[in-house]
From TrEMBL:
<feature type="domain" description="HTH cro/C1-type">
    <location>
        <begin position="15"/>
        <end position="71"/>
    </location>
</feature>
<keyword id="KW-0802">TPR repeat</keyword>
<protein>
    <submittedName>
        <fullName>Helix-turn-helix transcriptional regulator</fullName>
    </submittedName>
</protein>
<dbReference type="GO" id="GO:0003677">
    <property type="term" value="F:DNA binding"/>
</dbReference>
<dbReference type="InterPro" id="IPR010982">
    <property type="entry name" value="Lambda_DNA-bd_dom_sf"/>
</dbReference>
<dbReference type="InterPro" id="IPR001387">
    <property type="entry name" value="Cro/C1-type_HTH"/>
</dbReference>
<dbReference type="InterPro" id="IPR019734">
    <property type="entry name" value="TPR_rpt"/>
</dbReference>
<dbReference type="Pfam" id="PF13560">
    <property type="entry name" value="HTH_31"/>
</dbReference>
<feature type="repeat" description="TPR">
    <location>
        <begin position="342"/>
        <end position="375"/>
    </location>
</feature>
Length: 408
C-alpha cells in the first residue's frame, strides 16, 4: 500500500544531514557551536524542538562552515497551488540578471536613450515602492526587471549633474525593491547583490542622508550571517554621521530612529537582550519625538512600526508572553504598509506558539497570510513553526496552511 503520509522536512532534519555530511557526532557539533548543548542539538534533529531562533541558526551554520540558508532550506519550493508565488519565483532569474548589469547595461538603443524621462521614471519607481509596501511580490517581479534596465540606461546617458544624481536616487530605490523581493523569496545571494547595488547607487546621489540610509540595508547583510560586530560598527558609524550632519529634519530624525531599530535587531540576534531593549527604547524616544509614521528612504519609521519592532525583540528570545503583552499596544492604521502589518501578525503567531497557545498562533498566521500571502508562506520562522506544529496536530486548518506554504 502506498504511503501517503506527508513528507515534512524541518531545520533540524537539515541540520542532521549537514552534521553527518561533515562526519561529525553531536558531541563534536556541540563543542564547535559554543553554548549549544548536545541535548538541544538532539532535540532539534529529532523534531522535538523547533529550530527557528536566528542566533542559534547562525551559530550552528558558523560551526558547520555553511550558510544559514543551508539549515533553513531557502529558497523554498513554491506550492503548485500558489499561482502568485509561482509568478514571483519565476521572475528571479531576470531580476538577478538586471542586477549584474549595474554600470554595464549593454548596448543602449537610440530609442531607449530618447525615452529617458525622469518624471516618468519617478512615477514608475513610486509604483514599485507601493507594491513593495503591499508585499505584492508577483506584481513586483513582473515590473522590476524592465524598470531597473531603464534606470540603468538613464544613469548611463544623462550628463553628470543634478539629473544624473536624481536618476541614481531612483535606481537605489528600485534596487531596494529588488532586494526585498529576493529576500522574501529566500534568494539570499541575489538580495545581497541588490544591497551592494543600493550602496553603490546611493554614493552617486550626492545626498548624505541617502548614503546613510543605504547603511541600514548593508548592516542587515551582516546580521543575516551572524557578523554582529561588523553590523554594529556600520550602524554606530551611521549614527555618528547623523550627529555630525546636524540636521533635525523629519527625514534625518526618522533615519536615526530606524538605525536604533536595526541596532535592536542586531543585538537581539546576537543574544544581547539588555542592548536590544535599550536600542528599542531609544527608537521609541525618537518615534515619540517624530510624532508620525513616515516612510523616508522606504524605512517605515514612526510610532506604529517601532511598536511592531517591540514585539519582534522578545520573539528573538522566545519570550512569547512579553511579545503578546507588547502586541496589545499595536494598532495598525488604515492603509498602513501590508509588509509591516504582515510581519506583525507573523510575530504574534510565533509569540502565541512560544506561550503554548497553538490555536491563537494559527489564527495569527492565517491573518498574516491574508494580509501578505507570499511573504508569510516564505518566512523561515513561520515555516519552521508550522513544521513543529504540524508534526503533532490533527488535520484541519493548520494542514491547509502548511500545504499552501509548501511545508508539506
Amino acid at each position: 500500500m502506498r504511503d501517503t503520509t506527508p513528507t515534512i522536512q524541518s531545520n533540524g532534519d537539515r541540520l542532521r544531514k549537514l552534521r553527518l555530511a561533515k562526519g561529525w557526532s553531536r558531541d563534536q557539533l556541540a563543542a564547535a557551536a559554543d553554548g549549544i548543548s548536545i541535548h538541544t542539538i538532539q532535540a532539534y534533529e529529532q523534531g522535538r524542538r523547533g529550530l527557528e531562533n536566528w542566533h542559534t541558526i547562525t551559530l550552528l551554520a558558523d560551526a558547520l562552515g555553511c550558510h544559514p540558508t543551508q539549515i533553513t532550506g531557502a529558497p523554498y519550493p513554491v506550492a503548485p497551488s500558489d499561482r502568485d508565488g509561482q509568478v514571483a519565483s519565476s521572475a528571479m532569474p531576470a531580476l538577478h540578471r538586471a542586477l549584474l548589469c549595474h554600470g554595464r547595461p549593454g548596448q543602449i538603443t537610440a530609442a531607449e536613450a530618447d525615452a529617458v524621462d525622469l518624471q516618468v521614471l519617478a512615477a514608475r519607481v513610486g509604483k514599485a515602492t507601493e507594491l513593495r509596501q503591499r508585499a505584492a511580490l508577483a506584481r513586483s517581479g513582473e515590473l522590476l526587471p524592465q524598470l531597473v534596465r531603464d534606470l540603468q540606461v538613464a544613469v548611463a546617458v544623462l550628463a553628470a549633474g543634478p539629473d544624473r544624481r536624481a536618476a541614481y536616487d531612483l535606481l537605489a530605490s528600485a534596487y531596494e525593491c529588488v532586494m526585498q523581493v529576493a529576500y522574501k523569496l529566500g534568494h539570499i545571494s541575489t538580495a545581497t547583490l541588490a544591497t551592494e547595488r543600493v550602496v553603490w547607487s546611493a554614493l552617486e546621489t550626492g545626498d548624505p542622508l541617502r548614503v546613510m540610509a543605504s547603511r541600514w540595508y548593508e548592516a542587515g547583510e551582516y546580521i543575516a550571517v551572524g557578523e554582529h560586530q561588523v553590523a554594529a560598527d556600520i550602524i554606530d558609524g551611521a549614527l555618528v554621521e547623523l550627529d555630525e550632519y546636524g540636521s533635525r529634519t523629519p527625514q534625518a530624525v526618522s533615519l536615526r530612529g530606524a538605525m536604533h531599530l536595526k541596532m535592536a535587531l542586531n543585538a537581539a540576534r546576537a543574544a544581547d537582550r539588555p542592548q536590544a531593549e535599550a536600542s528599542w527604547r531609544s527608537a521609541m524616544e525618537v518615534a515619540e519625538q517624530l510624532g508620525e509614521d513616515r516612510n523616508d528612504y522606504q524605512l517605515m519609521f514612526g510610532p506604529t512600526n517601532t511598536l511592531i519592532w517591540g514585539v519582534t525583540v522578545p520573539i528573538e528570545f522566545g519570550d512569547g508572553r512579553e511579545a503578546i503583552k507588547r502586541a496589545e499596544r499595536v494598532r495598525i492604521p488604515k492603509g498602513y504598509s501590508k509588509e509591516r502589518a504582515g510581519h506583525f501578525h507573523m510575530d504574534v503567531g510565533r509569540a502565541y506558539f512560544y506561550a503554548g497557545n497553538r490555536d491563537r498562533a494559527l489564527a495569527a498566521f492565517l491573518q498574516a497570510e491574508q494580509v501578505a500571502p507570499q511573504q508569510t508562506r516564505m518566512h523561515p520562522g513561520v515555516r519552521e513553526t508550522l513544521t513543529t506544529m504540524i508534526r503533532t496536530a490533527r488535520p484541519g486548518a493548520l494542514h491547509q496552511l502548511a500545504v499552501r506554504a509548501g511545508v508539506i
